[in-house]
């Protein structure tokens, strides 16, 4: 039952829950409970299958059915509290929210109605509508985007900029920022100085479209979804950072699909070929690829890091070239490609820059990961952490890595037959990768969603295999991801979206 300006508590089947004194509608743990020290996904995959095997009695509370899952109790899962006001453990809450195929998210019209406050449509109004129609485009202001990003972080316990500041103020310890990955920690004062010095100009006029936003309902039913893994670099022109002036063009990781024209993505041959095989396998269905953040270490691969490094590199500042050369050589010895060091001329050689420019991304990563250390900076090597901070996208600059990363900052509609194009044939070639593809840009999700929500078929298989976190990440990158878009998928994704927005 839906009332004006007020919603009664209902269960997954639409039946009324008994009204009890003290019924709480607190919409999340940020204000009532501190952000947990560990994220809700720390236990993802552990005992998750047990959560699918029991449908609870909606007339009992979590405390009364402790040890059993709450897949059917949608209202409790969204709010974080059961009908008697008891706090639901965050791990159980997240497992239930993200569980693919369970009674907890969608499948039944009453669930979406109870969650969003509006009766769902019997069928998607967007199934036959082109999602790129100009008259339907919507844009977010910077303030709106920041508020939504904060809600995403709060909902899933992802540490962000404020948590870094709070940690530094409470402990007095140095900060391990996300862009540092395995690099050295920094002081809070340095972090603030880096922010004050950073200046990134918008890209030249006519190169990028403004990011318009869509929702899961804008992805047509009957289409397929697949993945585009992109690093966290931004778009624009870096003009200044703490280390000094710059003129490095930032051509994006997950911002790349916004390019004017029909260039839609760039990557390695194997990645491009896999995307092509997905689109070609179902030519009768539209294929949409959604961007997923890669870890901060991926920035070492990026040509923008390389360009900024050599803007700052001064071989006269190197105080112990022998130690640096030995560090690079040892890094290759312990890597998966020890032959990558072949031809290394030494860091003070006039040929060093040319050698670095010719390296593939994997070998370049090996070099920069070895140099991203405090002792290397003391020997005159440019600050890799500060470089990565300066080229990162504002949306992800402070967002920590997650076992269930957020998906959908941008989307790309893949057109069969337009994949696997050599870089030189693209309108605006990407500096890092050799191949690309053309397609349509529909926009990006206004609220990014956890990977397990967007790709529930993959998540369910990963849970069944009880994969460790590292194995789960590898499984996602290596497998051919194809997720059909159905009415149930839309309902579940929209329900999670609404839950995140309640935490704004």
Please render the helix and strand layout as text.
Blueprint: E1 2-3, E2 6-7, H1 29-32, H2 74-79, H3 90-98, H4 109-116, E3 138-139, H5 142-156, H6 161-171, H7 188-197, E4 199-201, E5 212-214, E6 224-230, E7 235-241, E8 244-251, E9 263-267, H8 269-281, E10 287-293, H9 303-312, H10 321-333, H11 352-358, H12 361-371, H13 374-378, H14 384-391, E11 406-422, E12 435-440, E13 444-445, E14 449-450, H15 451-454, H16 456-464, H17 469-478, E15 483-484, H18 487-501
Parallel strand pairs: 5-13, 6-10
Antiparallel strand pairs: 1-2, 3-5, 4-7, 6-15, 7-8, 9-12, 10-11, 11-12, 11-14
Helix pairs in contact: 4-18, 9-14, 10-12
Task: Give a written overview of the molecule.
By secondary structure, this protein is an alpha+beta fold. It has three domains: 2-116, no CATH class; 134-165 and 199-237 and 249-296 and 395-501, no CATH class; 314-381, no CATH class. It is built from 18 helices and 15 strands. It has helices spanning 29-32, 74-79, 90-98, 109-116, 142-156, 161-171, 188-197, 269-281, 303-312, 321-333, 352-358, 361-371, 374-378, 384-391, 451-454, 456-464, 469-478, 487-501, and strands at 2-3, 6-7, 138-139, 199-201, 212-214, 224-230, 235-241, 244-251, 263-267, 287-293, 406-422, 435-440, 444-445, 449-450, 483-484. The strands form four sheets. Strands 6, 9, 10, 11, 12, 14 and 15 form a seven-stranded mixed sheet that branches. A three-stranded mixed sheet has the order 3-5-13, with no helix packed on it. A three-stranded antiparallel sheet has the order 4-7-8. It is globular. It starts with a strand and ends with a helix. The relative contact order is 0.16. The model is unreliable at 1-72 and 99-134 (pLDDT under 50).
């Amino acid at each position: 039952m839906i009332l004006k300006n007020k919603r009664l508590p209902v269960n997954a089947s639409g039946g009324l829950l008994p009204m009890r004194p003290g019924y709480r509608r607190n919409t999340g743990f940020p204000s009532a409970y501190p952000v947990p020290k560990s994220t809700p996904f720390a236990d993802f995959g552990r005992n998750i299958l047990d959560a699918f095997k029991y449908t609870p009695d909606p007339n009992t509370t979590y405390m009364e059915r402790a040890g059993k899952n709450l897949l059917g109790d949608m209202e409790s899962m969204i709010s974080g509290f059961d009908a008697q006001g008891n706090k639901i453990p965050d791990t159980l809450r997240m497992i239930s929210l993200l569980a693919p195929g369970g009674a907890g998210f969608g499948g039944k019209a009453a669930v979406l109605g109870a969650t969003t406050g509006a009766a769902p449509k019997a069928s998607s109004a967007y199934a036959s509508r082109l999602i790129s129609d100009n008259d339907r485009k919507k844009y977010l202001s910077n303030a709106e985007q920041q508020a939504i990003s904060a809600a995403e972080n709060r909902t899933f316990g992802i540490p962000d900029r404020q948590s870094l500041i709070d940690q530094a103020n409470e402990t007095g310890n140095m900060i391990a920022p996300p862009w540092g990955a395995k690099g050295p920690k920094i002081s809070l004062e340095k972090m603030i100085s880096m922010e004050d010095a950073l200046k990134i100009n918008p890209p030249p006029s006519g190169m990028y479209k403004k990011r318009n936003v869509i929702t899961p309902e804008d992805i047509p039913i009957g289409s397929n979804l697949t993945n585009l893994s992109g690093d966290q670099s931004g778009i624009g022109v870096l003009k200044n950072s703490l280390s000094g002036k710059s003129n490095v063009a930032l051509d994006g990781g997950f911002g790349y699909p916004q390019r004017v024209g029909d260039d839609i993505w760039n990557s390695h041959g194997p990645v491009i070929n896999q995307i092509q095989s997905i689109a070609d396998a179902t030519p009768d269905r539209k294929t949409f690829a959604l961007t997923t953040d890669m870890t901060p270490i991926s920035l070492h691969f990026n040509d923008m890091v390389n360009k900024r490094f050599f803007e700052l590199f001064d071989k006269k500042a190197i105080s112990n070239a022998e130690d640096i050369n030995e560090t690079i050589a040892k890094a290759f010895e312990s890597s998966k490609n020890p032959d990558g060091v072949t031809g290394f001329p030494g860091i003070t050689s006039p040929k060093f820059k040319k050698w670095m420019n010719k390296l593939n991304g994997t070998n370049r990563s090996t070099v920069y990961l070895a140099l991203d250390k405090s002792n290397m900076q003391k020997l005159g090597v440019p600050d890799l952490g500060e470089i990565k901070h300066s080229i990162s996208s504002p949306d992800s600059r402070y967002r920590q890595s997650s076992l269930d990363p957020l998906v959908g900052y941008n989307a790309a509609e893949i057109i069969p037959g337009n994949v696997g194009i050599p870089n030189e044939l693209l309108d605006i070639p990407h500096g890092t990768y050799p191949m690309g593809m053309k397609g349509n840009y529909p926009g990006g999700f206004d609220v990014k969603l956890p990977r397990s929500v967007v790709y529930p078929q993959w998540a369910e298989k990963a849970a069944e295999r009880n994969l460790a976190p590292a194995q789960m990440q590898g499984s996602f990158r290596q497998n051919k991801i194809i997720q059909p878009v159905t009415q149930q998928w839309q309902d579940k994704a929209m329900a999670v979206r609404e839950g995140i927005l309640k935490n704004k």
